[in-house]
Amino acid sequence: MENMEKLMEINHVGYSYHTMQGETPALSNINFTVYKGDFLAIVGPSGCGKSTLLSLLSGLLEPEHGSIFLSNAKLTQKGNGSMGYMLQHDHLFEWRTIEKNVLLGLEIQKKLTPETKEMVLDMLKTYGLYKFKDARPSQLSGGMRQRAALIRTLALKPEILLLDEPFSALDYQTRLTVGDDIGAIIKKEEKTAILVTHDLSEAISLANRVLVLSKRPATIQKIVDIAFPNNISALERRNSPEFKDYFNQIWKELNDNE
Prior knowledge:
Structural class: alpha/beta
């Protein structure tokens, strides 16, 4: 990865939660680099601080120790315009059509122009939602709604997409298809993505690296490089012989830690 462009550097980052009862360390000495075009998945035991780490990477929280650099500049709470978020729920508004929903971010940021609107309508066409542009969110399947939510996020041209368990509200079958769809869209748009998930299969089927966190206070236990032949899709990855080896390797890391 030496020749790849560094997009984000996380150096010796630590964070604790403070309450009247005292201090709860959440993350300790976290170090890794995100490269342009990376799809990084973060896994770890329940409650280990995965979402806290994502909040630090977004600039919503500031590290107590260490530093985070985005494009060689220190990340600040004001400087998270380069981040696009996808959450567990699509947060589409029922009183707005799909077209109006996907244009919402551009409207809020006062970036809605004939050019940006055309770009978004092109994405709706490319990703099979154009004929539903006048529909309401409740008329779409869960998978289509998540696709619309992703287009709304991509419209703002973020440098990094932060995905916080974006498929966990979907049933298993839909989740597989949507994971495949979203993975393909992110690859086609050549975006850098960081996914937090508790689903190891999802991490392996989508990511090119899986970052394994220990139990709290979380440290990085291991970073596993994921490589499949011929640029195959997320669904095809699940059926390939390498998949089981990666799964067993990451499962062992998590359970050795327990």
